[in-house]
Amino acid sequence: MARRSPHPPAVKRKLHHSPVLALLILLLPSLLVVIVCHRQQISYLLRPIWDTPPRPFIRLPHYYAQDLPMDHLCRLHGWSILTAPRRVFDAILFSNELDILEIRYRELAPYVHKFVILESNITFTGIAKPLYFVENYGRFELLSSKIVHGIFTGQADRTPGRDPFQLEFKQRVALNSLLRGSGIAPGDVVIMSDADEIPSTDTIKLVQWCDGVPPVMHLELRHYMYSFEFPVDYSSWRATAHMFHPGTRYRHSRQTDLILADAGWHCSFCFRTMEEFVFKMTAYSHADRVRRSSFLDHSRIQKIICEGRDLFDMLPEEYSFQELIKKMGPIPRSASAVHLPSYLLENADKFRFLLPGGCSRSKIDA
């Protein structure tokens, strides 16, 4: 009896799979294009798989109620009260956040000995920029005796692939020199943060008056986006309070496991005009998120900031799928203007765009 050849079935199997292989070959270029064009979104989507979260902070409880005496507040934290307050220095890098800077300075002025501020004639991305603080000094003239201002001078450079974090690092190093020339001395307190990371006055009074405060602690700030109408979470941690000593250096990164709970506000992209939004989007260290010129369209930006959506169409930066899914979509709108900077509410007409119901922005105005 003749044997049946094994080859025909193999040929059939090959013929059976060839359409699938052909389809894969056809789809591969499209898949590569999708990966290249949306690599940031894909990276963020898969972050819970490829990245591990940093170790958790040790959160220090923060006690405060209006009219409570400072010795009682210090004792609530497990500290004692000093016989005289420490001097407080506030050290920041400044770009173009004029309205937020005015709120910060006028809110903290009664408690801060010196405001140390460094600005540059170039952005982190190498774009030439005006010296906005110098040009608008009149807004801060009443505080001139408290202000120590410095300028970082650089050359505009738009070389493709240039790392913006290198220039940011150089400016933060320059702020060290400015701080040391401000009259600060061992035992003084220095707040290190960005201009839009504002510690509350009760936080400042704690580090000013209480003995036993940790030598370095991060400040947990409530994070807002576009205005105080869109509270995101309490994820802002980079601001720090230091007991100054000769080895103290200005940094904007993790320096300790300790963090003081509910210590102020971080208002990101809280600008008055469309032009300020566009400038920040193209100037800061994450300017690579502007993937298309249409991202800078004024009508698009206006729609996004009134809906609480992401300016860069990015997914949330989370380390678990649960948190990522929870934060997808627009930021829930808040109608509360409770526990905000006093100066903001005292001047609500001037800063209406930062309050609930004020999302409509303008072009450059006087």
From TrEMBL:
Any one GO BP annotation for this protein: N-acetylglucosamine metabolic process
Coiled-coil boundaries: none
Cellular component terms (Gene Ontology): membrane
The organism's place on the tree of life at top rank: Eukaryota
Pfam families per UniProt: Glyco_transf_17
GO MF terms held by the record: beta-1,4-mannosylglycoprotein 4-beta-N-acetylglucosaminyltransferase activity
InterPro entries on file: Glyco_trans_17 (IPR006813)
Protein name: Beta-1,4-mannosyl-glycoprotein 4-beta-N-acetylglucosaminyltransferase
